[in-house]
């Protein structure tokens, strides 16, 4: 059995080619992060208190808002600390936790988008049976399934990466710990871990994406059969926000994990979009594109104004 001097901490190198821009990036990322937290919290609370939004579609949207609060919180606080001049080091356990929660929440969100696509499929293709098929027990079961699936996904990937010994270089070429930048630091053969971990990510991503495309393929066919243009427009409007969110989520994921070649600078930029920018856009997408949410938000603000004025 070999003796290794185990690495106890890693150094995050941050976003490449951004020297001298730390203060500007800190202000920019802090603004995005705060907007993400407040926007998604507002969406979640609005769905919680508005009886008109107590339906399967908004139940899943509420879950998405929760994930969009947690997901950027995996990497943003540590990144903003070192942009302020604090230590760039992260403990071995902290690095493992970052990787686990990143893929746990990312996997959960991937599964949730698939469930949301199925919900839209049932609503548009089987409207008369919608409340029977998407009953509270089914919705709860599907949501628990996304959480458990994401947890299993994150656990497998974290085990594969951190079962290897780390004894040499400890510089992570990114602003947080992820598989493509941590695995090359292992002082052992990483080929099996690399193959299994990337296969796991690829299979989950592509399977969910295929199921979403299948659902929307049926949805498009059903919408085209609607005789009135107003009916078609209304049906498309209920799906448009979800489709925009899907492309914003899957685009960066596929660019990072499905590309044959890797570029540290491009990967960091894509990760910034995925971790910080996209979660901040979802509240805008779902409020600007959804009349029910906008109406519920107005009622919440009106009630708050009455309470504060009383």
Automatic annotation (TrEMBL):
The terms under GO molecular function for this entry are: G protein-coupled receptor activity; olfactory receptor activity
Q: Localized where?
A: Cell membrane
Q: What residues form the membrane-spanning segments?
A: 25-49, 55-74, 138-162, 203-224, 236-258
Instruction: Give the matching PROSITE patterns.
Output: G_PROTEIN_RECEP_F1_2 (PS50262)
Write out the entry's keywords from A to Z: Cell membrane, G-protein coupled receptor, Membrane, Olfaction, Receptor, Sensory transduction, Transducer, Transmembrane, Transmembrane helix
- What role is this protein assigned? Putative odorant or sperm cell receptor.
Q: Which family does it belong to?
A: Belongs to the G-protein coupled receptor 1 family.
Q: What protein name does the entry list?
A: Olfactory receptor 10D3
Name the source organism. Mustela putorius furo (European domestic ferret)
